[in-house]
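can u do me a favor
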């Protein structure tokens, strides 16, 4: 949608309201809009899509379908409807039960009845300025969570929300209670392959949580990292300032250094944990935090 197309559309609409759809003025601008749109599509393809065919075929197909307005009349979940799941309601219940049963063998976290209000150091608490900065950094293109509060609204009214959220977070960490409503999420299954054939293996659950929840999580993460970062393995690359690229460079350096020394061979074993994040035992995770000496305000 280029500026020239927008101008042509505005003039077309003006001609329509003033002279009517049978007027020469309207027909002229109508035809100009069609020509400009066709030209803009062609320029966009040459500039942004054509080269993707070689470097990113998947994105190339998405862009081509978008340009051609190609939409499949068949939705992916139709392939999962069966005698066991004859309707969409049955299918969603089936998938929900599958997610619930994943950790049914794990002991649930016992609720904490410690109502003591901790006197925390200042670095564990947040102030207006920190919350305001985080709110202004929100990406407005992201979808909202169950509270349905648009991210644009949180960012636009950061001045008004900042003191409220600061109070909520500080009271939460002092009392050791995370607001129950902020734990809710909208779970959207995304097919891993097209078409999916199995509820258990071919759907990836994507959870849309509240943006407020993410902000509070970020404040806690900052306090947590400052306590454990020096105790982690230096070969752990899932940390701030590190990335997968660092891990690959380190691995390649180790392999090539070993090979160049002569009379050596290399064997590499890659492992991927099925449902790795979904199957985390929270009791084991919490015990690990205690052993690392994390402050009780964090792990409780």
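np, heres the sequence
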């Amino acid at each position: 949608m280029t500026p020239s197309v927008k101008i042509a559309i505005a003039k077309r609409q003006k001609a329509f309201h003033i002279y009517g759809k049978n007027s020469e003025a309207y027909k002229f601008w109508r035809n100009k809009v069609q020509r400009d749109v066709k030209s803009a599509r062609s320029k966009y393809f040459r500039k942004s899509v054509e080269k993707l065919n070689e470097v990113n075929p998947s994105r190339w197909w998405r862009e081509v379908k978008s340009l051609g307005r190609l939409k499949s009349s068949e939705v992916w979940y139709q392939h999962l409807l069966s005698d066991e799941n004859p309707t969409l309601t049955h299918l969603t219940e089936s998938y929900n039960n599958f997610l619930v049963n994943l950790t049914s063998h794990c002991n649930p976290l016992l609720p904490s009845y410690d109502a003591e209000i901790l006197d925390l150091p200042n670095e564990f608490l947040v102030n207006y300025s920190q919350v305001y900065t985080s709110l202004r950094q929100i990406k407005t293109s992201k979808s909202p969570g169950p509270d349905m509060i648009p991210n644009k609204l949180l960012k636009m009214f950061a001045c008004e929300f900042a003191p409220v959220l600061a109070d909520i977070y500080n009271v939460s960490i002092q009392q050791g209670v995370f607001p129950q409503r902020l734990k809710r999420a909208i779970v959207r299954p995304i097919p891993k392959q097209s078409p999916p054939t199995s509820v258990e293996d071919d759907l990836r659950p994507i959870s849309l949580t509240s943006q407020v929840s993410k902000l509070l999580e970020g404040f806690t993460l900052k306090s947590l990292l400052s306590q454990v970062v020096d105790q982690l393995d230096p070969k752990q690359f899932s940390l701030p300032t590190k990335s997968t690229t660092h891990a690959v460079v380190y691995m390649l350096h180790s392999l090539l250094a070993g090979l160049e020394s002569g009379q050596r061979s290399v064997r590499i074993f890659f492992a991927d944990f099925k449902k790795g994040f979904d199957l985390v035992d929270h009791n084991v995770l919490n015990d690990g935090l205690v052993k690392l000496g994390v402050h009780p305000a964090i792990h409780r």
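Residues 3-67 form one domain. hope that helps!!
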